[in-house]
Amino acid sequence: MRNLNRLIRDSEGATAIEYGLIAALIAVAAIGAMSSIGGKLSTTFNNAGNALGQ
Fold first, then answer.
1. What is the superkingdom listed in this entry's lineage (predicted)?
2. Is residue 26 part of a domain?
């Protein structure tokens, strides 16, 4: 019973989960931003290639 009470009062697991959720949110935001920038960059290089006559 003491082990269960100690486990309930332990906050290290909750902190690790919170850090994991923050990291996941940052990763999702970064993937979204990079995919948007990647599409625009591809268009820019295609326009530059077409202007050079390739």
1. Bacteria
2. yes
Report if residue 21 sits inside a domain.
yes
Domain total in the chain: 1
pLDDT of residue 47: 93
Residue count of the chain:
54
Residues of the chain with pLDDT under 70: 4, 7-13, 54
Q: Counting Cβ atoms within 10 Å, is residue 54 exposed (0-12), middle (13-18) or buried (19+)?
A: exposed
Q: Which two tokens stand for residue 52?
A: 């050079």
Q: Determine the pLDDT at residue 24.
A: 96
Is 3 among the domain residues?
no
Q: Tell me the C-alpha distance between 47 and 1, whole Å.
A: 70
Structure tokens at 51: 């202007």
